[in-house]
Every structure is written in C-alpha cells, then in structure tokens.
Predict the structure.
Amino acid sequence: MPSHPPATTPRTPGRRTVVAGAGLAVGAATLGSPALAATRPLLSTQARHLVGRFSYGVTPALAREVRGRGGARAWFDWQLSPGRISDRQGDALLGWFPHLSWSTSRIAAENDSGRVGGWEVMADYQNWLLLRRMKSRHQVLETMTEFWENHFNVPVSADGVYTYRKHYGDVIRARALDSFESLLQAVSVHPAMGMYLGNAVSDKDHPNENQGRELLELHTVGLAAGYDESDVVDSARILTGWRVDMWDTWAAFYDRGSHYRKPVHVLGFRSANGSGDGRKVTREYLHYLAHHPATAQHLAAKLAVAFVSDTPPASLVRHLAHVYLRHGTQIRPVLRALVDSSEFRHSVGEKIRDPENDLVATYRLMGVDVAKPTDPDRAAHQLLWQASTMGMMPMSWPAPNGQPIAGAAWASPSRVMGSMSTHYTMAGGWWPNKGIHYPKPTSWLPAPTTRFDHLVDHLARQILHRPASDTLQQACREAVATGGHEQVDKNHPVMLWLFPRLLTTFFDSPDFLRR
Amino acid sequence: MTSAAPGGDCCPEYAALNRRSVLRGALALGGATFMVGSATVSASASSPTPASAVLVVLSLRGGADGLSLVVPYGDPGYYNARPTIAIPQGQLLAGTTDGFFGLHPKLAPLSAMWNAGSLAAIHATGLTVANRSHFSAMEEVEEADPGSSARIGWLNRLVSTNSDGSPLQGVGIVNGTPPTEISGPVPLMTIGSLDDASIAADDQWDTDPAGKRRRSLHTLWDHDRSALGVAVRSTLQATADLTPAVAAVDNSASYGGSHLGQALAAAARIIRGNVGTEVITVDQGDWDMHVDLGNLDGGQMLGNADDLATSLAAFFGDLGDQAGKVTLVTISEFGRRVLENGNRGLDHGWGNVMFVAGAGVKGGRYYVDQQQGWKPLSDDLESDLHVTTDYRNVLAEIVAARFGSPVSKVFPGLAPRTIGFMQGA
C-alpha cells in the first residue's frame, strides 16, 4: 500500500471543529486548501439543523441561499411565503410529465381505451413529487405539502382515484402554509378523498362510515377526544351527499337526495340538519372540528413528532396547540413557534431520515442531476422504483393514517439494506443510467493532489455539511483500506475503482441517516 | 464469520443473554453436538441454533370479514343482514360444511389440508372490547398487553423468553415498515425480499478477508444509540447468518404472483434454510372492504380469498423436511359489521375468525367457545359478531403447545382458557 509522509504535522478535523466553527469555516482554513476555505463556508450547527429539517438536504447551493437571506431563521420566514419566490426549475417539472396536465375526463378516457393506464398517470405523479422535492426552491412548501398530503393520505392505488389525485395534491399544496381549516374544508369534500374513504358512494339509508370515522380519528380530533359510535355514525351522515359518478362520467356533484336530513350530534356539534342541501352543515361541522382543542393537540403533537423528535415533550405540544388555536388554525405561526422553541434547538440529529427524504437528499447531496425524460426508461421515470427499494414510494401507503412520521418505524434492517443498496448503486453511477448526470469522481477532488484525510473532510463538508469526525475518517480509511496521510490524485485507486465504496460511506453514516 | 459475536462489547442490546445464547456461544467455538430437550442437535461453527418450532403469523390487514371466509349458514341472521352479499349454503366449499359453518368456495385450494385435519378455524374471536379503529386496534391486538404502555409486540416477548441474540430468531417479511407485533427490545430482522437481504458493497470485490466494508460500517454504527444503530447492527449480524436461507431453492413461481405468495415463498426458504428462525410475520393487505366486498358474481372478496388459499396451500407444500415444525395462524385487527351497507360492503365490526394450520393442529373442524356457543346474528345497523373467544387464548394455546414458553410472560394478565385445537394443549 503506497504511503507518503505528510509534509506538515497533520491536523485531523474532529467534532471539536464543528463546535468551534459555528457559522464559519474554521476547520477548512487549517487544511491548506485555499479554494476550499474561500468557497465552502459552513452554516452553524443550529442553522444546518433548521434548514435540514425543512428541506431535502443542505446542499452547498442551499447554504449559499441561506446566507444570502441573512441566516437560517430569516430564510425560513422567507420560505413561508413561496408565492414571492420564483421557482423556474420547480415549475418546469410539470412539463416533463404531460399526463399530469390532463383533465379528469381525459385521464379516464385514456385509461378506458387502454392507451395510458391510470397507474401510469399516478407513476408520473409520484416521480413528479420526488423531482419537486429535489429541484424546487420552495423547500419548506414541499416539506409541508408532503406532511399534509400524508396527513390526509389518499393512496394513488385506491380505486378510481387516479382521475382526481393530481388535483387533490394541488389543492393541498395551495393551502399547505395557509390555515388548517382551509385544508380540511378542501380535502374533506374532494372527490379523491370521497372515493378513497367511501363517501363518494355513501347515502342516507346506509351511510358508509369510513370517512366519517377517519375524519375524527385521523384528520382532526383523534381518538383521545373520546367520541363514541353514535358520533361516528352522525359524522358519516353529515358527509352524505358529496358524490362522484365513479366508473362512468366521473362527475363530482352534490346529491340532495343522498343527504341524511335529521338532527345530528357529534361531540359538541349539533345541527337540526333539516335541509336536503347539507353543504352548509358540512362546512359548519368541519369548522367546528378544525377549531376543536383536541384537533389542536392532535396536530401539534404530529408536527412535533415530524419536525422535533419521536417523543416530543408535552410542554412543546401544549405550546403549539395554544398557538394554533390563538391564530385561528393558521399554520405559519405554529411553524414559527416550533422552530423557535428550545425543544427544537435541542433536537439536533434526533430524527431518522425517512426513505423518501433519504432518496431525494442522496440525489441533491451527491450532486446527481436528472434530465427531462425523453423515454420511459429515463431516470425521471425510475425514481419511484428507487424509493420502493428503500421501503416506501410516495403516496402509496395503503392505509388512511399515512406513512409513519416517527423515525423508529424506518429503523429496520430491511430499510437499512434498501438504503445502502441505493446509495452504493448511485455512488457507482450504475443505475439509473439514462437521462441522468453523475459528477465524475475527480470533480470531488479539492486539489489535483490531496491527502486522503483532507479529501474525506472535503466530502463531509459538501455532503454532510460538517467537517469529518474522527469516526468518519476511520470508517473511510477502512472502507477503502487507505491511510489517512496517503496522497491521492486522479490515478489513485481511491479515485478509480474504490471511489463508490468511499462515496457510499458518507451516505451510510449516522450523520446522513439521522437529521 | 464477520459479524459481531453476540455478547461482545460492541452493542448494548446483547447485554442480556440466556440459554439459547449460551448454546450459540458454545457452537461458535467449533462444530459440536448438543442435547436440546430430547433432541440431538449437530451444528457447524457458524450456524445459528436451529429452531424446534416455527410460528408464522399472517396478518389480514384492514379487517377481514370472517363471516365471508367461514360462513355461519346455519344462522338465519346472516342471510337477513346481507341481502346482496351473503353466500348461499349450496355454494359453500364441498366437504367443509358441518351443519352450521362452511368455507368460502374460493378457499378450495385448502380443501386437502382441511380434509387431512391440518387446518382449523376458531370463530367469534377478537378483542374482548370492540375497537373499530384500524390503527388503534392493530396496536392493541399486536401488543397483546392491555393496560401497558410498554409498546412491545407479543412476538417480541415470545422471542425474548428464549433469545440467543440472533436477530434471525424473528423475521418480519415487510413491504414498508415492521409490524407492531415484532417490535420491542429484542432486535429482530426484517426483509423485503430474501434476494435483497445483503449489505451493499459487501461483495466478492471486497477482497479484504476481514471484510473492509463490514468493518467500516461497524466503525460508523457500533456506538450509535439510536434505533437506527440497533437496526444496522442487526443487519450486519443477520445477513451473515442468513446465507443458508438465501441459498435455499426458491419455489416462488408456484405461489402465484401476489405479495402474499412472494412473502410466503420467502418464509419457506428461511424455514428450509434452518437458520434458527422461530417466528415469521407476513401480511396480506386490502381487506378493508367498505365498498364492493361483493358476492360470488364479483367483488373484492373473491380475489382476496383466492390469493389467501392459493398462497397458503403453496406454502405448506414447500416446507420440505421442516414441515413438521411449522404452525401458521391468521389474525385481523377486527371483523366487520354483520349488516351490509349500501355499497355491497361492510363497515368496521368486532368478532372474526382465525385460521390455524400446520404442525400440532387438530383440524378439519370449527371451534367456538363451548360455554357461550354461537351468539345469533342480528341485522340492526350496529350489530356485530359478538366475541366469545379472546384472541389471545388462540395464540396462547399455540405458544404453549409448540414452544413451551411461559404464557404468562408472553400474554401478561391473561387467564388462559384452553380451546382444544392444538395437540398437547
């Protein structure tokens, strides 16, 4: 094994430099690589934490954007108004998947004629979502759209929903930072939700209880609210009338003849419900549920689990619930309160990255670029299969509760193996291999010749947005059996056949898989 | 042997070890012959402790309608409540009617097992108090520890009574996240498919005999205290021990192409690989039939029942010389309402049927609680199949008969009642 003595006394950056270098590239300045020091300053640990939780990977470009906005907290506020942030790259993605601009009747007709299956439209939708998360500048909006679309889960494979599913997602994205009530009002009567949970075919004589129950249990007050079976039945009765002419015209309409017209009583909500037009009582009922303290508690806990830790302190949940009610179910004030909490600040690295975030962050942090697809075998059409290897495809969780947001569910051997397989396959640039650009190994070299430990540190800064720890340095030395002081250039085995083994080590590390 | 030895100082989860672990540790010293109970076990240096019994738990997710799978045709209430979706007596599976119950005709692939007495059905089982929430009921059923907030699955407790530190003692075959029933303090294995059960880059190109890739991953994760750290260490250990299962013949082509068939085909390979697995979980989804459960002319029940029976029959034909060890039980979070709704479907209900098949089963017959008997079905809006057998008693009878594990540890607080469907119960 070739080994060159170091020219100067080595100084391996460790965890100490992470602390010391808060906000500045202190570690880089010691590495003797001027280009590095000049162009790769790191965000502080807290800034990396905030941006990391509300994005799909802190790339060097995103870090520049954050600095340009005056810091992480200012960046977050700026991101909360996505309408004011131009996003040409994200917007252009719709043009990559022409089926996603089709009307409901067109989707149905193409499916019925066998030309383009509904499942193909849905695959486009899933890939489009992954690409939006990858390329959109609206990182906070995409993060919150994912959260709410999962909260109001309508799996793409549910019967018939391919006709309305893209529209359903658009409805959620448009309100993802607005108020919970506006979200609830829009999704609860949306044809996609109605078809999935049976409300689209429910009627007054035999109400289908499915949506009436999940509206209470999952979407709003939660089981802890203590409703009983008669509440569930009346909840379903209130929702009767919102129908879809499934498998025929696919028209969504309100049918007065289907609406149950007798007094209803759910928790503290009462209505004489005497009109055949139950749309008003639906709105009043949803308003009641959105503003219910149990809903505030339920949503606050869920947001805290998603963005703070799997076991958030009760004090934080109470605080967020209070903010939610005080601001009339507005989402932005709750998110600000969350990121400003000491509980959030103290949760660095406590969340496990879920498979979808893992996949998207791997693309972003590996610097892999996906091109507009020209054929079905292009990378833009393969993303969801990669997600499947890791354990979950977007919007395909088969039950109305949505996929788990607590990280423990994703801490399984099957997920570990799936993630490692995907990381390694991409580190080698082996698949997907069409309509995609992987950086050349040599483009990761900070200088034509560099010491191995300096190379590792350089990679850690770009991929993990922190200097390499001693543990990571050791793991990298072991992965490619190379000494820390060895000089590496483009002809060194590490930059040739060993490079995928080196690169994948960063993505298989706790510093990547925990966030 | 490249995985961390259990009992080594790397990993906190291996701190507590017992009989199986002592045995496994001894085996690691070299090939040897040991007495386990009355059986003589020979093993090579690296093989895990073989299992003397295997339990496969098949979860029918979404709340399967037990009244369609095992039809109480002798109860007129069944026909009153289901004007469009009831199955006529004359259409029930030939040879399975006993004067009151009969099997859904799509369960025909299971006829041979029924007739051979290796398949039994226990009806009107479930939680002792109705829980109609999928998610809450699933947790309650799978933790099987009422009143506790420990959040430990009953299969995790079962394995813990006899743990040797090998994650392969329990294997979840999953399509996503692990089920509650195997979750808990004992680290267990989950796989999506057996052919993908390996560590990327731990391959023939990794020419270092010590395994550079594995050593590197140990460095990264051995001191990580998160749940992910446990999962990575389990993966490192289990993939090394899983080799005989991966090498076992894959007969999945004979199972049909369904998820369930593929999962059971993988289960059969793990069992034939004889890698020490005692517990395997598999799932079959899509039982939540609020709309278009249907009848024999069409609807969702036809396909699900056919998939269930086809996959189970293939599985029990694919166990080779391990067949005498394997018992399978089906479970669902709740049954469905007796009265059909307006959409040829059924809303969430209460009682259900459980099937038990394979080793030790006194089958070819239906069981209901002997003291309470069958409670007649009614056709009012909220009528349920009333539970007369606590589902834990079904599981406990299997645990006692096949594993000899203390039921009180696996099902805390349960006052066991013998149903009598297992030999030696």
About this structure: Residues 304 and 312 of chain A are 6 Å apart (CA to CA).
